[in-house]
Each structure stands twice: as structure tokens, then as C-alpha cells.
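Researcher: Re-running this chain for the archive, since the previous output was lost when a drive failed. Same request as before.
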Amino acid sequence: MEKNEHYKQLLMHSKIHELSELGLSKRSISQQLSINFRTVKKYLKMSIEEFETFLKGKEERPRLLAPYEAYVKDCLTLYPETSAAQMHDWLKEKHQNFPDVPTRTVFNFVMWVRQKHNLPKKETHERLFEESLQLPAGLQAQVDFGQSTLRRTNGGRQKVYFLSMVLSMSRYKYVYLQTEPFTAYSAIQAHEKAFAYFGGIPRQLVYDQDAVFLVDENLGDLVLVDTFRRYVESRTFKTYFCRKEDPQTKGKIERVVGYVKHNFLFNRPFSNIEALNEQALAWLERTGNALVHQRTHRIPKLVWQEEERDQLLSYMPIGALTEPPKGYKVLKTNVLLYRGNTYSMPFGYYRGENTIVHPREEEGMLLIYDEHNVLVASHKIPEIKGQQVVNRDHRRNRSEAMNTLKERFCTFFDHHALVGAYMDEIAGKYPRYLRDQLTAILAAGKKAGLEDAVRALECCVDNHIVGANNFKTVLCAIQADRKAEMEASTDAEKRQPTPDSTRLMGPSATQVASIQPSRSSVDTYENIFNNQRS
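Model: Regenerated C-alpha cells:
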């Protein structure tokens, strides 16, 4: 310990005793001097002589871990909330040759670095529950969910969700993480991974009343989600769901969730979910299940190996679970509404109300698959909600679409010499509605047939009759003429000449008796349009 630091400690001891003699409480002294409450309590118990002896003893203690001072200082500077327990885990993770020292030694060293470099810890107040009842080996495990937001290595933030399970007797833990909120299927998969990790199945699992597992609570009659109910029936364990007012019943897992969040995940960078799960298993091996448990004063892994593993029910993996992907409807505007943002789909992808796609999130990207698992679109996920994410390739290529429509128009009219002139007239009168005009004319022409459509086209061009509605009116008049002609022909066939008249007038009498139908003149069409304009 440096000489100046020695004097600072003596001055702090003197100041604490001085404030105590003035009648200040330990809590008030702690707040006034910005030091830990336990430090005040410890210093007040020592006289000046005892404190001198204490300081001399401390001078040699940090030297064993002195090579790690710079690393600890840098970590505490960046993350002042870091606990000594988490720092111990980081030291073991980052330094392969870190000595095997008691946790108390690391705690003292971290406190020494804090005091030396003036890096006070930001206090957090979180109530954690712990069940005191010691249960038989293999009887019970507790399950709960948690979530945390991590910093991505390439920038931005990533929320992760995890399921934790702990064997109540040995405190042997397991944790599984993913980037999506848990569903019944993914929770079942996490159960299976936990049972494989434990090497067996406990007889009872304790849960919160979580919507992942429960549909409803009806005065104590719990209704399980159908998928999870069938899974429970296929396994040997029983379920117990805590009442909402009684979280202490599952205090062990509450503690584990906090442990995962504040020791493993706290300030941990995120690259991808596979790497994070590998890191979680390594953390369980070196810290989560390897350190002495504060409650039992035993190492969870050793207790599991020696006493609990053989008491678990046998575990046999079930068949591969495939969760049916959640389908999302594509809106008629060819966009997908997903988690507060809209994402463009290829133009024309919407095929009615049952147009379903299956989005997946992977490394900051939204990948959109169709019902055949074919990728149809991909977008970068924005960091904030309420965004309209558009791929310009999904926009309608209006010039290409118009050229295609014009080609279809010409092809239908068999590239008639007047087609180009008529399209030009329509474009001049209806420039903003050219697409709609040509589409309507094309639809009406296909319905009536090529012959009548060509006659209507010729009539409209010759008389400068422009527009889809006018074209359809001319077409209707032409069809009416055709109908009248057919009716007249039918009447003529009914009025066949008698045999006598045939002999008198000759074999052409039938043709002579045929009546030629009258045709509508252009004046008829113009009258129709005049009536429409009036």
C-alpha cells in the first residue's frame, strides 16, 4: 500500500469515528462519506491501534493478484456496477493462468482497486428470495425465464431471452438463451436440453404462472397450453405452478435468474446466439456450478455428481421437435407488419387474405420465407420501432410495367394499324390514368371478342372518340347490332317459302326472302356519347 494511501485510510478511520461521536448513524456516515455501509461498521469496531495493525496486514494481500490490477481497473472504469463475483468470473475467463484463490481474496482485491483508484460501486437494490427448506435429491427443479439487453460487437443493442432451471437439492443449474421470446415449443426444447445436461429428470418442476405454459387460471383450475400439456403428459415429471402472490415458493430459481443476469450477462458483448450459449456452458462449468454456494456452503457440481444425479428419473431424448413457424399475413399494400415496423414485399406478392409468410430474425436481419420455406425478402431490422423499411427492388417498375401493358394491348388487337394512334389519343387526354384506361379497354375487348373489339377501335379512331368508357359504349352498340342481326337471321329461317312459291320463283327464293338487318350509323354512336356528356 502506498504511503499516501495509508494516510488516506487513517484519515477516513478518524473521520468515521468523529462523525459517530457527533451522533450520526452508520447509514448517514456512509452517505456523507460516499463509502460502503459495511466499511463504516467495520472501522467503528476498531481502535486506532487495531486499525494500524489491520492496514499493515492489508499491505501484503493484494500482491498475489497485483498483475491483474490494470485489467480490474479498466473493467471497473467502464462498468462500475460490476460485482466482485462477476469480476472473479471475468478474470478466470480472460486469463487462463489465473490462480485458484478463494472468492474472498478476489473480493478484497477488487475493493482495494476501487479504493485506490476511487471507483465506487453503484449500489443496486434488488430483492432476491431463497427457500430454506432442504428437499430430497432428485425430487424437484425450479424453472423461470429472464431477459437482458446486451451490446452487439458490431454496434447497437440485442435483447436476449433465457430459460433457467436449477435442481433444488444440489443447486446444479442450467441456462439456455435465444433471441426470440419463448413459446411453448422453444420452452420444451430448453427443457430437453436441461434434462440432457442434468443426466435425468426430477420428479417435480415448479413454475411461475407464465403465459408460455398456461392459458388461464380459473379459481385454481389451471389450463395448460395444449402443446405444453401434451409434452407434460409424455414425460414423467409433475408440475407445480406458484400462486402469483407467493414468489418465495420458487426462491431458488429467482436467485439463479438474478445470478445469470448480473454475473454472466452483465456487460457481456453479443456476437451471435450460438456463441452466447457456448459461453453460458463454459460459465456454468467454471462459475455457476463450480463455486461454493452461499446457502449450502457446498459446490453444486460435486453435490450433483455425488448425491443427486443417480436419484433423477432416467432420461431418454424425445424425437426432434419442429415448431410450426408463426405465420404473418401480408397486407394488400404488399407490406408485412412485424413487431412495430412495416417491411416491403415484392410488388404483386399479395395474393389475397391468406397470403402468409414466415419471418425469422438472424443477426440483425429479418428474413422472410414463404410457405415452402423459400426466401422471398430480407431487410435490416431498425433499432427503433415505427419504421417503414423498404427495399427499392420491391417497388413497382412503372416504366417496365407500362411497356408490358402496351405490348399486351397491341398483341390483342393483332397489331392493328390504328392501335398506336388510339393509345396516343388516350395518353393525351388521360396522361395520369393511361394504365387504367388501357387495362379497362383490354378487359372489355377480351370479353367481347377480337372482331367486335376491332370494329369498336376503328369507329373510335375514325370519329375521335376517346376513353375507356366511350370505347365500351361503342362496343356495346356493336354487340347490340350483332344480336339484332342474329335475331333477324333466325326469323328469316323461320319464314321459308312454300313449295309452290319455290316452283314459281325459282331455287333462289329462300335467299330473296332473307331480310338484311339495318346497321347503326355513326350518328347513333355520337348520339350515345352526346347523351353521356349532357
